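Title: Prediction job returns without error message
Component: structure pipeline
Severity: low
Priority: P3
Assignee: unassigned

Description:
Job completed but the reporter wants confirmation the result is attached to the right record. Sequence as submitted:
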Amino acid sequence: MVIPVKNLKKITAFILCVMLVFALGACAPKGATADKEWGFRANGKEYAVGTYLLPLADAYESVYGYLGQVNKDFDPSKSILDLEASFDESGKVYSAREWILKQASDYIKYMVAVDSLMQEYDVKLQEGRDSAVYEQARNDWFLGKDYQNVIDGYAEAYPVKDKYEPLGISVESYCDAAYMLDVKYDAIFARLYSKGGEREVTEAELNSYFEKNYVDYSYFIVRLYEASYDEVTGELVNTPYSDAQKKEVLDKLNMYPIMAKEGKSLSDIKKKHIKDFELQSSDFMLERTERLEDVSVSASSEIADILNEIGESQAKVIVTGQGDTPVALVVYKSPIKDETKKYLSDDINYRAIVADYKGQEFFEFLASYADKVEVEINWDVLNAFSLEFIEKNFKSYIKRFEF
């Protein structure tokens, strides 16, 4: 989904929150019928109660986790519903109860808005897409979101049904309120902003945005220490180079920025490095194209600092690392315009850049649209699922994980 993260706080705790691994337990009032009765309806479509309970439960989870982090007096044995805090960047203070209900209410409007836009713009999903999405939802439901990592031995999975089914939420409602919502959102965005859409981004606009916000760079690391195993203990021992050894390596590496200044290409630098260090392979260098602001996370803060400092077709060498594992970092910044056509000709890259460029605009359009939708809410049914009930189930379940 292309919704900007900073705005998720304003419209729905479901998409905002990183799901806790703990699930909700116990039985819900009317639990068996939560997906047999409608919870809200609009434009001739009825939505199951479960599609309201899902964001309600997730909003509670998100708030519980947030208050546990920011409230020094947080007491997990007591109710959080009357605790107050500012849950988004607006600074406005809400009680937990008010905020949770607001998120669920906003989410209802959001779902209706997405479906309304699907109708208004006659957006159709690719044939078989809905069944594929449902199959993925079923995998989550019965096996857990990390089931593949469990198979590979990397994680423990928690079936989603353990979290939602006790509340009366079905796999169908889970699929509709989570997966299908994302799929429809992306389909509408693509319909409006891709080539031929009502809000199509021109090639010139997209090129300009890409070249202003993205960077094409390459980097590699050279050790400035020896690694060996202790003959007695068998432990790995790292020994920093002597000053003479370190100077020998850096004298070679420091030639690369000079070569770049003289107009030598990245290929020339790679060839020299292979020769200088007698390498058998040319895959020592990592090459990336991404948003400049993302480099500090995807690579390192040191690389981000260098890229902000040097110009295109320039290189820089720094010594970094700690203690007995110092390293030399070599970074080269390529001209971004040389990459534009090739990068944006890839369909996946094209869609990602359009989403990056126009995602905020589309979110604001959708949020405004959601404010205007008319929704009939079946409070006679929804009010049976109180926040006290949600809280009781959540706290009952997490006791299973106490040691």
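Comment from assignee: result matches the submitted record. Residues 1-33 have pLDDT under 50 and may be disordered.
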